[in-house]
Amino acid sequence: MTGTDKELFRGELERELASRDFKRFLDYVWIQETPQVLEGVEGGKTPFVKWPHVMEIAGGLVSERKLVILKARQLGASWVSAAYACWLFMFHPGAQVGMFSIGEEEAISLTGKVNFIYKNLPAGWVRELSADSRLEMRLGFDDGVESRIRAFPSTSKAGRGENFALTLLDEADYHDDLPGAYLALSGSVDSSGGQMVMISTVDPWTTDSVFQQTYLRAKEGGTDWVPLFFGWRSRPTRDEGWHRRVMANTPTTARLSPAAYMMKEHPGSEGEALAPVGAISGFDGDALAYMKGHIREPFMEEGPVRLYSKYQRGRSYACGTDTAHGRLSDFSVSCVLDITTQSAQLVACVMSNEMGTTEFAESTMRMLGMYGNPVWCIEKNDWGIDVVREAERARYRNLYSEPAADEPGWLTTSRSRRVMWGNLRTEVNRVAVVIPDRAILEQFEQIIVVGDHGRMEARRGGHDDGPTAVALALQMEGYARASSRGALVRAPAAY
Q: CA 383, 389, 394, 399 torsion: positive or negative?
């Protein structure tokens, strides 16, 4: 066998192996990178880089029928999905791929990505396309079967009646008629057994959209959709310095502050990505961004207990507790705040959605013992009364009790809820609360204002347990300092 023959054989073997393994196929993919000065990216034709997050996307593409991907910008998700479309197109004769984008220009761009990948594969791998236009690619095979890729501006009628092996909706949250397109396409996917993939950042001016609902319901379980989230840190070339530089170079606009822009375009968490902006956001975006700058790792962590600052004699502490309605649903959360100064600091917390009330109460009391057994305000609605009883059974004496109440605890009514959440919003927005715990702060990002009366609550699929616990602790601020250790702490009579 001559050297040329060996090369041909090796090329044919590699093509055969790549046809069976999409991840191996990616070794031969070239993409067109956009220049990114702040990240030192020159741009132009460049080999596809198999970063961990894009390989996770690749794994989802080859294993899941319905995939919903929530992401930050410029992470390569469109390129890896275009590569997958190209792989299906080449190695699965007769494959029909439908790609849907915001408008015609974006649809052309998506087809262009597939075309670029196809034409830059090893020379012996490709054959002449039977159709090659800005919105369509066709590839004929020897048996007369034809694969096809078509790109569409997303409308309720686009792609109706087609049986796609892959239905890809890119930047889905920005489609003008996503509900109509979703209804038109999902039925075909379900009947034909094809794949459906939605990829998007979140449109900051929509709430509870089809894309967002799909993602949140997938997170809750019980649907066929598999959710994936990738924040700005997913790209290995980005670090905190990059984030600061981009935000520093982002101007304030009439609609978005630099901090709000970064939360929408480059979210670091699901909470940031899904948090609404503007008037419907529960808390000021700049205040939340300030607190995010104070996130740190606990100096001690034991199961669900996380400690951030050591107890100091002479300082005033207060604890608020919100108890979940059951396991694996909401979280049971206890938060200890240092309320010595005008700026309250979270120093410790217990957070779990797996504990029963007895175990949760015991964990909270162990934590409180490390902070001098401060005043403890337990919301006694629903299962919270069980925590109150566990505290009484353990003779924890520094419990908050309402005037003339038969038992300790905070009873949340429509009036007391307005007082509690109104105070919390005021303190957060004037940056008088610092939350170093990432998980609890993410819940703050999920709070929205709904209804004509401005009720604050967690958005659909979110949680408000951590903010509630912090709010309860803040309610103790006015009189906890004056309370006597060992006595029931009672609210002022005026309350």
A: positive
- Find out whether 441 and 463 touch, Cβ atoms under 8 Å: no
Pairing of strands 66-71, 226-230: parallel
Q: How far apart are CA 367 and CA 371, in angstroms?
A: 7
Q: List 31's β-bridge partners, or say none.
A: 46
Total number of domains constituting the chain: 2
202 and 336 belong to one structural domain: no
pLDDT, averaged in runs of 10, over the chain (495 residues)? 53 88 95 71 83 96 95 93 95 92 88 94 89 90 90 72 86 85 78 88 80 91 92 92 89 69 86 71 84 93 95 94 74 95 94 92 96 94 91 92 82 89 93 94 85 72 89 80 42 34
Neighbours of 484 (CB within 10 A): 9
Distances (CA, A) of 275 to 222, 265, 296: 23, 12, 21
Q: Say what the pLDDT of residue 490 is.
A: 42
Residues 303 and 405 in one domain: yes
Q: How far apart are CA 435 and CA 345, in angstroms?
A: 7
The pLDDT assigned to 256 comes to 67
pTM, two decimal places: 0.63
The Cβ-side half-sphere exposure at 192, using a 13 Å CA radius, reads: 20
Residue 305 domain boundaries: 281-490
- Report residue 338 as tokens: 């240092």
Q: Are 316 and 192 within one domain?
A: no
Is the CB of residue 463 less than 8 Å from the CB of residue 219? no
**Crossing angle for the helix pair 77-91 and 3-20, nearest 10 degrees?**
110
Q: Which of 240, 263, 292 is the last residue of a domain?
A: 240
**What pLDDT score does 359 carry?**
94
Task: Say what the pLDDT of residue 198 is.
Answer: 95
- Please indicate, yes or no, whether residues 219 and 321 belong to a single structural domain of this protein: no
CA dihedral 153, 205, 263, 420 (to 10 degrees): -150
Asked if residue 31 is part of any domain, the answer here is no
Q: What are 455's strand-pairing partners?
A: 450
Domain membership flag for residue 261: no
Altogether, the residues listed in the chain come to a count of 495
CA–CA gap between residue 136 and residue 114 (Å, rounded): 10
316 plus 221 within the same structural domain: no
Give the per-residue SS3 of 263-304. Answer: HHHCCCCHHHHHCCCHHHECCCHHHHHHHHCCCCCCCEEECC
